[in-house]
Amino acid sequence: MNPSTDRIEKQILLNAPRSRVWRALANAEEFGKWFGVNLTGKQFVAGQSVQGHITYPGYEHLVMDVLVERVEPEHHLSWRWHPAAIDVTVDYTPEPTTLVVFELTEVESGTLLRVVESGFDQLPAARREYAFRLNGDGWAQQMTNIERHVAQG
Q1: Domain definitions of the chain by residue range
Q2: How far is CA 76 from CA 1, 56, 88, 104, in A?
Q3: Global pTM?
Q4: Of all helices (H) and strands (E), which one includes residue 129?
Q5: For 126-142, what is each residue's pLDDT tens digit?
Q6: C-alpha dist (Å) from residue 119 to 45, 116, 126, 139
Q7: Architecture of domain 7-151
Q8: Which tens digits make up the pLDDT trace of 34-69?
């Protein structure tokens, strides 16, 4: 049994300087390239919402919508969103959001990226387990995606 049903935690050691990893996270257009969302012309600014169409095959009809919470250069980026909001016939806006936090730590061999998404226990019971499982798998894939992206320069 998972020790926590409220939070997903993933981390990866990236063989890249913190400034490079930060650019891949905080530059919205670059973020979209590895994350799979079209954020052309967008910026991550604390207190502002950002939307973009998903570019992952089969999900292009979906829009990612996040409310940026904090931006601390080369250290912390966080936002709120509705996890696993993939049914276009459902209005997710009345539901609580989860908090996604990206934290960077400079280490001898590169940069440690830690991603924590929390708040799943507040979701409606009917969606909680599905959202947790879907996003857990998604964050595992995104760690591979950002690793590949920063390795390309």
Answers
A1: 7-151
A2: 30, 26, 31, 7
A3: 0.95
A4: helix 125-151
A5: 999 999 999 999 999 99
A6: 22, 10, 15, 15
A7: 2-Layer Sandwich (3.30)
A8: 999 999 999 999 999 999 999 999 999 999 999 999
